[in-house]
Design a protein that fits this description.
By secondary structure, the chain is α+β, with helices and mostly antiparallel strands. The chain has 14 helices and 21 strands. The chain starts with 14 loop residues before the first strand and ends in a 20-residue tail after the last helix.
């Protein structure tokens, strides 16, 4: 009989230190304490009230629901506490040509027929002149609801198209961080107030051993999570890992943000409107609307960008505009020695597709999957870095697509981005689409086939042909089935409540008292 295996625990990571608060810091602390609330590890978060947080990431994508679910966060409570609203997709205005408008909805378009991708059958209809390219949104439950300002929480047992709604959230990032802080501190995360003035490293390994605060307090750790923002206090200032600059593809390097009063019930979607040298966001929350102008300073000065933003607001400003400066790209190593960077300290890609919080979430999930022992294994560290590079590059390519796939030539900016050379990985995808409308998902790409289809069709990229296999299905039967799908989505959307009504009746509206009897309101069938 084999001897029982002895599990050695003396080399376990015992002390985790999160450097920096904000959304990324408290996401990390809340998640790690969820996994390691066994009394054998301590998790300490160090932040200073003197150092402000950027507070980006008010719009999200559907995987945020998995993160909140992992932490057992009740959805209605979360929405109430963060003044949140639902998000069914992103509406893009003026991206292909001036006057164009399309939506990138969450979820699928229609249903595959006999193993043939729905968008191929849709393209066949486009080629016969039976439909217009942008009308593929009529075959999305999320898009149908968004267009009417409606929302319903789907039920997996539903017998109607409501089950196909896919959603994320808009929320106040500062309130979300505060909510996660309360959650984490209940799980015994220790918060230390203070500014870090010195970093101490192990003389043999070069690992970070401790951080020292003003006043002399020293906080030791086995593993450090750098959530210190753009400056990268540990990952860059101390470990000098280097930064890979992607501004030759994505030249936007400034964002001016300002909140405004709500002038109408909140829409269940984000809006991104292309401007002369960038784009403007509009994110509706319960208590205000978030607005911002992302632009490239080499094509437009800050005063002009601020004027464009303020001239295109829908409500009265609630604060003075503030400017954020950034360089698009990523750290050459997200994990170096015993330091893992998350959020802005790891890299930055403009929030056109609301990926900022997801990149934090992805990094946390990857860390939990590769959580190390002492000494840290280089192969596990390399695997983390490989995976993070992969997801950053995938997001990068998808964002570049929005600029490359334009017909605009009304400014130097748009003429430059439409003619620029793009990464080989994106060029290959665009060429496969150009030939027969094909999209192949590679690795663990964040954006799947429906997302690429939405943007490419929405920005007038019509393939030269559709797949020949689409011709094997009877045209009349397919057209009738598509008509039935389209009508089903429209009729279902019309029966849904407005988003504000849904939030109030679900007890998720901040000004209302929670209504426990209707906590599951909206699981339509």
């Amino acid at each position: 009989m084999a001897e029982p295996r002895v599990i050695v625990t003396s080399n376990r990571i015992k002390k985790v230190v999160v450097v920096g608060g904000g959304t990324s810091g408290w996401m990390a602390a809340a998640a790690l304490t969820r996994f390691f609330a066994d009394g054998k590890r301590t998790i300490t978060l160090v932040e200073s009230n003197e150092i402000g947080t950027v507070g980006v990431g008010e719009a999200t994508i559907p995987p945020i629901r998995n993160f909140n679910g992992m932490l057992d966060i009740p959805e209605n409570e979360f929405l109430r506490e963060t003044r949140g609203t639902f998000k069914l997709g992103i509406e893009f205005v003026d991206w292909g040509r001036l006057g164009d408008r399309y939506i990138h909805p969450f979820g699928d378009f229609g249903h595959d027929f006999h193993g043939i991708a729905f968008h191929q059958l849709f393209l066949r209809e486009v080629f016969t002149g039976s439909t217009a390219p942008e009308s593929i949104a009529q075959y999305s439950m999320s898009a149908a609801a968004a267009g009417l300002g409606r929302f319903g929480r789907p039920s997996s047992q539903a017998r109607s198209p409501i089950r196909e709604i896919t959603y994320a959230f808009h929320f106040d990032a500062t309130l979300y961080a505060a909510y996660l802080r309360r959650l984490a501190e209940r799980q015994k995360v220790v918060r230390r107030e203070g500014r870090i003035v010195k970093v101490h490293r192990d003389g043999e390994t070069g690992d970070v051993a401790s951080v020292e605060l003003e006043g002399g307090a020293v906080i030791e750790g086995d593993l450090f999570i750098d959530c210190s923002g753009f400056r990268g206090l540990l990952i860059e200032q101390e470990l000098a890992t280097g930064y890979e600059d992607w501004s030759h593809w994505l030249p936007m390097d400034r964002a001016i943000a300002v909140p405004t009063e709500n002038i109408a019930p909140p829409d269940p979607f984000t809006r991104a409107t292309a401007r002369t040298a960038g784009w403007q966001w509009r994110i509706p929350l319960q208590h205000r609307t978030g607005n911002g102008h992302v632009f490239a300073s080499r094509y437009m000065d800050e005063d002009e960008a601020r004027t464009i933003l303020l001239d295109n607001l829908e409500g009265q400003p609630l604060a003075d505009p503030r400017t954020l400066r950034f360089t698009t790209g990523m750290r050459k190593k997200a994990w170096a020695h015993n330091v893992i960077s998350l959020g802005l300290s790891s890299g930055f890609i403009e929030p056109l597709e609301s990926t900022s919080i997801h990149l934090v979430q992805n990094g946390i999930a990857r860390l939990c999957a590769l959580f190390p022992d002492k000494p840290i294994s280089p192969i596990e560290r390399d695997e983390y870095n490989r995976g993070m590079r992969e997801v950053y590059e995938d997001v990068r390519d998808f964002i570049i697509l929005h600029y490359k796939a334009t017909q605009r030539d009304d400014s130097e900016f748009w003429r430059d981005v439409r003619t620029m050379e793009v990464p080989e990985s994106l060029a290959r995808k665009m060429e496969l689409w150009r030939l027969h409308g094909r999209v192949f998902r590679e690795n663990a790409e964040l954006f799947g086939l429906p997302s690429w289809v939405a943007v490419m069709l929405g920005q007038n990229m019509i393939p030269e042909a559709y797949e020949a296999i689409a011709d094997t299905l009877d045209e009349a039967k397919v057209r009738a089935a598509m008509e039935q799908l389209r009508e089903g989505y429209r009729a279902t959307a019309e029966r849904l409540p407005t988003q504000e009504d849904f939030l109030r009746r679900a007890g998720a509206w901040y000004q209302d008292e929670p209504m426990a009897p209707s906590a599951n309101y909206g699981s339509f069938s």
